[in-house]
Specification:
Chain lengths: 252, 210
């Protein structure tokens, strides 16, 4: 039976992981290779590296980092941040990424999804969506959640999947950072319209939040989080053990 | 030396890196003479079956691969590379494969039980069920060990060659072997320690005489 995936997300700036914490046995918590390997050895099912650098020099450092990570870690790697063109896809895929996550770049140019899916396959294109409630509707936000595009969430998801997005990452801005659990209502709405895997993001504060997520919404395929893993509130081996005890199928 | 068959399809970065980590000498090549000189061959692949089969033909690799496999050189197909080992695929029309393992490739969606609402592609980590006795390619792999799948089509009518399956509403062909010709539907180069063990087995000649 297919397992539910647990995915840590690492923000990388100028070639270094932002927000690292001291894990036992990990000398340099800001080293993307060391931290990625730590997570891979400790049960992460996939890793997301998010490039939050703006400069060209930072971009170059990021591809160096990616190359080193992909040479050492043999689980699926997704890369996001600053993906605006097919050349950006090409740049990170050549360095060992398996999937590429598009967000603002696809909002600016929705044809990017279809072009990338045609060239690299649907399985390669992850549509990442930041959304929040505005006047009783779910609106899609761009630029890291700063700009309301006015687009309705479910329309955008349908359009993305039709164009060839192979997975959806839904990040609820309403629950992000609050640590009160995932946005089950918004996720349910997206699962109803998306025939592809849906990855929940935003709001996880403890192990129980993941159990509630997968128990309440069996259609959700994966849970993604950053700080609760990085700051050590939740250790992935504990999380997976407790998910298994709760009857949720995970890779142990 | 392991030759990774280069026919312009797919991302070979992880495969090359995983062989490097295993200490296996590997070369990416589309040159039939280099393939003939290699101890064993890996046929990778992602994308559409028809395009890949055409690419193999255009690069003049279809006949060399058939001949080398026929002469007993160990060959491992990965993902679409495994599918290419079969007689034909029904992916967007009918396309001829290498015909090295009897069977064909069919779409997953119509065969899945509708009441389970399973998604296609079949993406993610799924547990292996090995056929007994366990094939040497799967030495060290335990029942239920998870490997990483990404695919929408699967091999059927190939029961005598199946060495492992994965449960996805139905029994999905996960790994096959017929003499020196082997294949995995999953990506061993993306399947952590379990995947590396399978690649090591292949590189060490388990499951296919050199």
């Amino acid at each position: 039976m297919i397992t539910k995936r647990i995915i840590p997300c690492l923000d990388v700036k100028d070639g270094r992981v932002v927000k690292g914490v001291n894990f036992a046995g990990l000398a340099d918590v800001n080293d993307p290779v060391a931290l990625g390997k730590f997570y891979s050895d400790n049960g992460a099912d996939e890793l997301v590296f998010y490039d939050i650098t703006a400069s060209a020099e930072g971009r170059r450092l990021f591809t160096d980092v990616l190359t080193r990570v992909a040479s050492t870690i043999f689980i699926p790697l997704t890369v996001g941040g600053g993906i605006n063109t097919l050349e950006d896809f090409d740049r990170v895929l050549k360095c060992g990424a398996d999937k590429v996550s598009v967000n603002s770049g696809a909002l600016r140019d929705p044809s990017l999804i279809g072009k990338a899916a045609k060239k690299y396959g649907d399985q390669c294109v992850v549509l990442s969506v930041d959304a929040r409630r505005v006047d009783g509707q779910y609106h899609v936000f761009a630029r890291g959640g700063r700009e309301d595009t006015g687009r309705e969430l479910l329309d955008w998801v349908r359009r993305g999947v039709d164009a060839g997005a192979g997975e959806i990452v839904l990040n609820s801005i309403d629950t992000d950072g609050v640590r009160q659990g995932f946005d089950l209502e918004m996720l349910d709405a997206v699962c109803q319209v998306a025939p592809v895997p849906v990855i929940a993001s935003g709001g996880a504060g403890c192990i129980q939040d993941f159990i509630t997520l997968f128990k309440t919404l069996p259609a959700v395929d994966a849970g993604l989080a950053a700080s609760i893993f990085h700051f050590g509130q939740v250790a992935i081996p504990d999380l997976k053990r407790q998910l298994a005890e709760a009857g949720i199928n995970v890779r142990l | 030396m392991v030759a990774i068959v280069d026919y312009g399809v797919g991302n070979l970065f992880s495969l090359r890196s995983s062989l490097a980590v295993l200490g296996a000498e590997a070369q990416v090549t589309g040159d039939p003479a280099a393939l003939a000189a290699a101890d064993r061959l890996i046929l990778p692949g992602v994308g559409a079956f028809g395009d890949a089969a055409d690419a193999l033909r255009q690069k003049g690799l279809t006949e060399p691969l058939r001949r080398l496999a026929g002469e007993g050189k160990p060959l491992l197909g990965i993902c679409l590379g495994m599918q290419l080992l079969f007689d034909y695929s029904e992916e967007y029309g009918r396309h001829e494969g290498l015909g090295l393992i009897p069977g064909h490739v069919a779409p997953l969606a119509p065969d899945l039980p509708p009441e389970q609402h399973l998604k296609v592609p079949h993406i993610g980590w799924n547990g292996l069920r090995r056929r007994q006795p366990a094939h040497p390619l799967l030495d060290g792999v335990k029942e239920g060990d998870c490997v990483y799948f990404v695919h929408s089509f699967y091999a059927v009518d190939c029961s005598p060659s199946v060495i492992a399956t994965a449960e996805y509403g139905i029994e999905v062909t996960a790994a096959v072997a017929r003499g020196n010709v082997m294949g995995t539907q999953f990506h061993p180069e993306k399947s952590g320690a379990v995947g590396l063990a399978i690649l090591r087995n292949f590189c060490e000649g388990k499951g296919g005489a050199v």
